[in-house]
Amino acid sequence: MLERHEAETFLALAEELHFGRTAERLRVSTARVSQTVRALERRVGAPLFHRTSRRVELSALGRQLLDDLRPAWAQVDAALARAVETGRGFTGTLRVGFTGAAGGQLLVGVAELFHTRHPDCDVRIREVQFADLMPWLRSGEVDLALTTFPVDEPDVATGPVLVSEARFLAVPAAHDLAARSALSVEDLAAVTVLRLPDTLPESLRADHAPATTPSGRPVRTGRCASTLQELLTLVGAGHGVLPVGASTRRYYARPDVAYVHLPDAPPVRWGLAWLAADATASVHAFGAAAGDLARAQVPQKVR
């Protein structure tokens, strides 16, 4: 197999026809150029160049190798350049997933800021259902995903918290709890909490429905669904309750569901997640844009 330094040396010398200029072009010594050419000629079995004290010229075999190698090597260089441009640069398409209407609205602002900084990189925002979040991320269907935290997975990297919102409990509108102005986390022991899909990280599902209340009372979990709308439909039908962020009551107002504040519950935190092994410069740049946009906005405690 032809080594890269051999091909580069041969092509450069075939163009320059001068060992000194070739060495300067490749930023190596003249002796290194001579050694490389001699080693290549030994492998080929015949001279590739005719050298005299006054001139260097290609042999017939050298011209044949040049004709065969130059277009192929140009394709190799172009392929490598495209790979470098995609991996280190900001071209191509970045696919970002979100769950819930509020997440989509946030990503629109991030995408606009990212586009002003990197206009040659296209951003496509896609809605992802709860059950598909991690499968899409791991399969490459999306490059990043805006999700609730915590996401403690060994192959997944996460950025900083972008949004923190108060936690509410979605309850059936006809339930006695719907008339309350506020609830406590301890109240979860008296109801059935609907489960998030099993495809989501265990850390996220445990944050959504803890095994016990702070006092140690067990929390009973109920049915599972794949989407937020399905879960809210189950709430409205009286099959259980659902902890949600404050934005859910604005974007998913329903006559069969009431949202009651949980002031003693930790906030719902949102941020970006991506596969650690597949992080490109564009992924990191999008995360940086998201962080800059979040810091530029006035923090609000939604209740």
Automatic annotation (TrEMBL):
Domain HTH lysR-type: 1-59
Matches recorded under Pfam families: HTH_1, LysR_substrate
Keywords carried by this UniProt record: DNA-binding, Transcription, Transcription regulation
Statement: the UniProt record of this protein carries the keyword Transcription: yes
UniProt-recorded name of the protein: LysR family transcriptional regulator
Family of this protein: Belongs to the LysR transcriptional regulatory family.
One function term, GO molecular function aspect: DNA-binding transcription factor activity
Record carries keyword Transcription: yes
InterPro entries: LysR_HTH_N, LysR_subst-bd, WH-like_DNA-bd_sf, WH_DNA-bd_sf
Native source organism of the sequence: Actinophytocola xanthii
Gene Ontology terms: cellular component: protein-DNA complex
